[in-house]
Design a protein that fits this description.
single chain, 229 residues, mainly beta, twelve-stranded antiparallel β-sheet, 15 strands, Trp_RNA-bd_attenuator-like_dom, AIM24
């Protein structure tokens, strides 16, 4: 094989961060002994070196708590030394570094996060009456890396710079936990923003932090992809 034909797809010689993108739809994680990772079950597409995978009882108990609310977070624990490549049915991947920060992520958009981070299924306040959005997300906090997915290229909006940011709940991927959130409704019934209830509503965020929004409002996209494979 002429290696010049594949050179553009080869990974960089050495990682520049614990977690980084290889292309837009794959995450590459530099694994080291003692620095474990939680990843979505089935997300490993390749690895270099010596890496092992196991179901973690604590993680599974927390995942089960999420299933009771309709939010499923099936996780596996990854350990070892080498390079780990993760993907989720061709979805876009965003690698987020947390610096003593907290992030709230839609369960279906969680790809991986450092195992030393604090995490758990948490109730999302203020949106229980809105259809199309689960009542619980995965809260992740501390200092480390998180990889999230998006059905299409996402937009990351800085609320501190933009002021109030309004988002369709079905397109919402993740947000900084310190943001203030409230529900808003449109006065025009014909202005159908959101696909759940037939009513026009948005989630409004304000404060210091960011919101990640995907260009897809259909929460069944990932489930359909799984059923086809």
């Amino acid at each position: 094989m002429d290696q010049r034909m594949t050179a553009g797809f080869a990974p960089t010689a050495a990682p520049t961060a614990r977690m980084e993108n290889h292309g837009s739809t794959m995450a590459r994680v530099a694994m080291q002994s003692g620095n474990d990772l939680f990843a979505r079950s089935g997300s490993m597409v390749a690895y270099e070196g010596y890496i092992q995978y196991e179901s973690n009882p604590t993680a599974l108990r927390q995942a089960f708590a999420g299933r009771l609310t309709g939010e499923s977070v099936p996780l596996m624990k990854c350990t070892g030394d080498g390079l780990l490549y993760l993907a989720d049915y061709g979805a876009e991947v965003v690698c987020v570094p947390l610096q003593n920060e907290s992030l709230s992520v839609n369960a279906t958009n969680v790809l991986a996060f450092d195992a030393h981070l604090e995490w758990g299924v948490q109730r999302v306040k203020g949106i229980a009456k809105f259809a199309g959005q689960g009542l619980f997300n995965l809260g992740i906090s501390g200092t480390g890396w998180v990889a999230i997915t998006s059905r299409g290229i996402p937009v990351v909006v800085d609320c501190g710079r933009s002021g109030e940011v309004c988002v369709d709940p079905d397109a919402l991927v993740a947000w900084s936990s310190g943001l203030e959130m409230k529900g808003k409704r449109s006065f025009k019934a014909s202005s159908l923003i959101g696909r759940g209830s037939g009513e026009a509503f948005q989630l409004a965020f304000s404060g210091q932090g960011f919101v990640v929004v995907q260009p897809s409002e259909d929460s069944t996209d990932r489930l359909n992809a799984q059923q086809q494979n």
